[in-house]
Amino acid sequence: MRFISFATAAFVSLTACAVERTGYDPPRNDLYHPTGVAVHPNGGFAYVVNANTDLRYNAGTVTPIDLNAIVPEPNRNPNDPYNIGAVLAGETQLIDSHGAFPILNGDGTRMFVGTREKNVLYAFEVIADGGGVRCGAKGRSRFTTCDDDHTFALSGKIFSDEGTENDTSQPFIGVVAKPVLGFPGEYLFLTHLNAGAISVYDITPNALTPNPNGFLGVTLLGQDRLGAIVNGTSAIGVTRGPNRQPMIYAGSSRVLSVRPPGSSSTLFFFDPQAAVDVSAQAGAIALQRFLGGNSASIDVKYITSSPNGERTYFLTREPNALVSLDTSLDADGRVKNRFVDVVALERAPATMVYVPGNAVTGARDLLYVSCYGDGSILIFDAATLTLAGKHRPFERGPYSLAVSSVLNTATGAPLRTWVLATYFNDDALLIFDAADPDPSRHTIYARIGTPRESKLPK
Questions:
Q1: How many domains, in total, are found in the chain?
Q2: What is the pTM (predicted TM-score) of this model?
Q3: Is residue 242 included in any domain, yes or no?
Q4: Residues 299/263, Cβ–Cβ less than 8 Å
Q5: Domain range spanning residue 438?
Q6: What angle do CA 76, 80, 86 make, to 5 degrees?
Q7: Can you tell me the distance from the alpha carbon of 97 to that of 25, in angstroms, rounded to the nearest whole number?
Q8: Over the stretch 233-270, which tens digit does the pLDDT of each residue have?
């Protein structure tokens, strides 16, 4: 049985992206409506997507930050209280507004950002040490958008087996995974807020050019073989582990519209190998039986997993919940996908990160969860889902989270473990020191970005 449908379409290069923009340029050395954040594999640099959501400026930005230049709160520099000196202003790149999450490939040599102002996928090259991103000559010589070889319009069509059609606009969040364990090659799996589909891009070549065959569309639309009507996908994650094939999880969304009659809240899963092998494991899990509520009301917001792949966690709204799923393998090597636990959260959970413990300090494995609606970051014991701590420095919209871990090259022990959090409504990136084995004692280590009220133009 063919579980997942495929279609091909072509990337359409934008011809109007590498032009000067009228209006106020966004700040190069500051943050504005920060949404997503990602950290280079070496732990030394972060990349913040600034969404420019209210369109105060003429564009959004991708802003690299040197984490090694951060001055912690106790030693705050009175001449630079918001760590603007750590922002790599000369490396800031313009993008369209309404950007979401930066997506790094496995070795941190490339980064992808989708924007919803004009439905564009930006493909960046990350410089060798991680201290900047490149997107063509025009993007470097002037403070303009990237050149046409690094900007792609998302205008392809995806069809289900039954002929249902939807365009792949409204790009949101993605993951990168290898389709076959132990073999070269990487694919980008990208969700779309207005389409029950995941578009899949071959990003294997060194050159940042689209796959000659366009992209494969993994459809979750209509009465398809995965068994649900879905009008959007806003969450996706990849579960990995030693000596096991990765598994992609994606959640149904109601972000932009009311779901059609007969729709249901669903967590989908599929092996990336399904891109070439239709017998690969795939399926759908209805969420109402575990979370209650209206069958179409549950909105899956974010998905992550433990490093060994034996637990996968996802966030939902209506109800606001954190759910733990047993994703260990059974005797036949198939993923169990058994519900383990559900805990209630504060309003509007947004994203989360898994922070592995440190045997030296006795720290536990932790889950940090941002709750946008209450201004809180909740900290849970990853094994028991008991609440271990809470941050609420101010009610200004914590959103995206990332982990910066720097290891001792001789011993492999962590020299530092930081959790980075974007605060969408306060134009800040806050850093929390997660090395303390007691997360209830965690305090703000540093802040990057000036407060909203200080921004120009007024």
A1: 1
A2: 0.87
A3: no
A4: no
A5: 18-146+395-458
A6: 95
A7: 12
A8: 889 999 998 888 888 898 877 654 444 445 557 788 88
